[in-house]
Amino acid sequence: MAVREIVAGMPWWVKWIALPVVVLVVFGGLIASVVGFVIALVFKVLILVALVGGLVFAVRKFTSSSSSRGDW
């Protein structure tokens, strides 16, 4: 509650401009690291899904074509 009372008595530009800038300066590196990690993780998951999907597609295509040749 004490923080809300302190912030409530300050001008609008301190609440909406100065405080976010201070937070970004102090925690900017951490925020960038977390965002970069999440983006890299999502990219790797998408690559994994594409590779597994391609592998399943190739296996189904080759097994279906080899079984149809075996019917001759």
Descriptive account of the structure:
The protein is mostly helical. It is built from two helices and no strands. It is rod-shaped, with a radius of gyration of 27 Å. Pfam families: DUF5326 (PF17260). It comes from Streptomyces niveus (Streptomyces spheroides). The chain crosses the membrane at residues 12-31, 37-59. This is DUF5326 family protein. Keywords: Membrane, Transmembrane, Transmembrane helix.
Layout of helices and strands, plus pairs?
Layout lengths: L1 H7 L3 H59 L2
Keywords: Membrane, Transmembrane, Transmembrane helix
Pfam families: DUF5326
InterPro entries: Uncharacterised_SCO3924
Flag low-confidence runs: none
Give the count of helical stretches.
Answer: 2
Helix share, percent? over 70%
How would you classify the helix and strand content by structural class? mainly alpha
What overall geometry do the principal axes of the alpha carbons give? rod-shaped
Strand content: under 5%
Please state the average pLDDT score: 89
- Along the chain, the helix and strand elements come as HH
User: Whole-Å distance between the termini?
Assistant: 82 Å
The main β sheet shows up as:
none
**Quantity of strands, as a count:** 0
Whole-angstrom Rg? 27 Å
